[in-house]
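## Example pair
The file below holds two records. Each record gives the amino-acid sequence first, followed by its structure token line.
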Amino acid sequence: MKILLLGEYSNVHWTLAEGLRELGHNVTVVSDGDVWKNYKRDINLKRHFDKPFSALRYLKDVVKLLPKLRGYDVVQIINPMFLELKAERIRPFYQYLRRHNKKIIMAAFGMDYYWVKTCLDCKTFRYSDFNIGSWIRHNESNDLYIRDWLHGEKGRLNQWIAQDCDGIVTGLYEYDACYRPIFPQKTCFIPFPINPENVTSLQGHPEYNGIRFFIGIQRERSEYKGTNIMLRALERLKEKYPERMEIVRVESVPFATYEKLMNTSDVLLDQLYGYTPAMNALLAMCKGLVTVGGGEEEGYELLGEKELRPTINVQPNEEDVFIQMEKRLLQHPENLPILSAQSKKYVQKHHHYVKVAQKYIDFWSTC
């Protein structure tokens, strides 16, 4: 197959491309590298917001690129907002892709209309980025997402593409729960891909005998993702167990720097409001880090996993994060190597990039 992967979230498309190429397919990845993370891509399509007339410059780049985006068997867009343009300006580019390629697949890998709408029903999820039980989490980020996706042009674009596209791929249990009830015939859950051959190994910390906890902060999304709460729990534990633990905190750094710091750690804190581990956690798990975050039974059931439980699942509040890390790690450090081994096995079993790539080929062939 000749395949175009358009856009990037946390290295999903580039890793998928590696798996597809292993299977003998011709793949082109066009993206901005997920902004400051700067992931690999075949064709760079980055908008430089710091330069004058950035929208006009970017629009010109996209138009110039269009002849190279024709003649593919499959085009997969990373999100309805697959270009750094206003939603109303994306419509004609989607229509162009539709006319000049055989199949269009929409990836449901992140923020979109159906995610916001489902979270706000306060029934589908016990908790999420937008709700805890019947309580709606209002903050600056959430209110902006609700306005843009539920009531704005982004949401209308999302609904239109979801109706029009040939298939929808969901990468996590959470997104599958949003799309499958509405589009049961065209929705397919496929786990995120991880390439263990590209994952650098843990370096350890021979100079320190305690447990090193790693937490990455995106300043503009800290409250939305709950890393502010997780950090407070970590700091409380540090006060209680000053000799047993260290905190490695990084903020909005390029991926290469981020991974280097991760490699000297033992435990990753990630996605307080998630049900399942996403790309960042899966990368860490592949290395053998223990993940604290989403590990609810619904995710294991969707994968058909009966035995492995590598993630330290936490409820979305500071006290439970504190208790789970204290009880399962600081008071019982012997759990670390057990959970580390399970983490590696889990990723190899469910997320190996070639296995995942074959699932994509199987799904695309049925669309």
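Second record, same layout:
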Amino acid sequence: MSKNELIAVTGSTGYVGGRLVPRLLESGYRVRCVTRSRESLSNRSWSEQVEIVEADLQNKEQTLAALAGADRAFYLVHSMTAERNFAEAEQEMASIFVEAADKTELKQVVYLGGLGEDNLEKSLHLQSRHNVGKILASGSTPVSELRAAVIIGSGSASFEMLRSLVEVLPIMIVPRWVTKTKCQPISIGDVLRSLLFVLEQPQTDNEVLEIGGSEVVTYREMMHAYTKVAGLRRRIILPVPVLTPRLSSHWVNLVSPLPFTLARALIDSLTTDVTVQKANATKRSGDHQDSLEDAIGKAVTRVQELEIPTRWSDTSSFRDPARPEPSDPVWSGGKILVDKREVKTDIPEEALMRTICSVGGDNGWFAFNWLWAIRGFVDKLLGGVGLRRGRRHPTDLRVGDTVDFFKVTSITNNKLQLLAEMKVPGHAWLEWSVQTDHDGKCLVTQQALFVPKGVLGRAYWYLLLPAHIIIFSRMLGNVIQSAEMRSAN
């Protein structure tokens, strides 16, 4: 097949679709993103490289127009977050789509569904996923249906639910099926490889391909794998027979940022075994490379590699798909606690940055230096680096320099980011940025960011929150005051 073909991608604003599009572009395809709102793709780094068509897939005319002229299409939409009748909505969209695919003479439709046996009684969500596949395959257009279970990657709803439960709860009371139901999780990287692989194979008939990782585990074993990779204490998991899926959904809603309707759909689908049954599926859907621990590791490494939200949009499209994207839902990517403060000033940008870059060492921390000294002393007692590493130069900074118990991880003409190397139950940064607006004023932004590690990390942040409010407010005020004096001189 020609790599110059036009590929229509529905669900391009979703978790899988948003990560698939840049890989299609990298492979040389022309891409058309089908979305209900053009603005929903405005923050993507690749939005200028694709054709964007607005269409509601429940509208026949709009769907037909969206597929006109395309060679192949990905069907990656679902209605899991709908309050009611999501199965009816999914079937209606699939019926309209297959009719439009036949009329526009598409060469192939690639559909991502869910693992599990047909005619499932426990999960309406999985039933609907399978019904959509059957509807798509009822037309004359060849359909490649890939079925996957839990997808491991930052931003995946199933993974974020797992992350929230394990991070927040050292002891969990769970329904009995958590310890018995079998699952075959797969990394988002392997899912994308499979989607691209089937797109590049000659396709004349319908086929269903089951894809999964190398390990079959229970959900309890998956939780234990997360604690091991994330460096948390092993969680105590107590199974009981009385928690129904609905009760479990409310429980998840209390400790997780996922919407209740999404949590309910996910939990319904977790109550039945979802494993690969066809042994030759992998050969026909590409190589699967990631073990469960590898997949989890890729999903959480953005902390070690300093990929906090202010940096997501700056990274290359070649980055690992398991990490966060700026368009991911607000509940994805793990918990990040932020103290953010902003001030507008007439002080020139250069003077502000010179002052900011003088932080630490003999110059001090702009406010409450005695508190910073105490924190350094405590850190030393705990086996940390302590405060008095100082800095290489009183005014000059480079990436990798130490600044007391911080390290410079990023520095530009208008930004400075420091990673805390003190002993804390998580990962912490201090960050300043300066931006000049159209009227010549400078907006100075100071952020303290903290990714907590388990319950202790969250307790640490909130225990120190009153002190942080006072310290960080005074810090920014004194930065402005010092810069003003420097500018006057």
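Notes on the second record: The chain has 15 helices and 19 strands. The mean pLDDT is 81.
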